[in-house]
Amino acid sequence: MPRKTKDESGRYAYEGLDRVLHEKARLGIMTSLVTRPEGVLFTELKRLCALTDGNLSRHIDVLQDAGLVEAWRGSDGGRPQTLYRLTTEGRGRFVAYLEELEQVVRDALPKAAKKPERAPDLPPGFQPA
Known about the structure:
This protein is elongated. It has a domain at 24-110: Orthogonal Bundle (Arc Repressor Mutant, subunit A). By secondary structure, it is of the alpha+beta class. The mean pLDDT is 90. The chain has helices spanning 24-34, 42-49, 53-65, 88-113; strands at 40-41, 69-76, 79-86. A three-stranded antiparallel beta sheet has the order 1-3-2.
């Protein structure tokens, strides 16, 4: 259901589109982690998100600094490994972010899917460039 407000100013500002999450690589990382609550190893996360070691590390740092992702370091057969999981706060913020994206789709899709029968009239006095 569309938002109903008396004042339409700022209706499409979408303040819930969290800048920390609203970035392609971090969106992929968060999606990978939310679908695997038991956690994901660095190498698997790198593969899932098609990122280089450096890019993944940089984006993970941003997410950890924001308190959204936690890490456990260990080893397997002497090889160091790092497991990443969403924090409780990370899961909550990601769900809120997804709800805001759903609102964007609800606002845009019905009108975007309709094909206008003719081009809309230009406002009076408007001169195209």
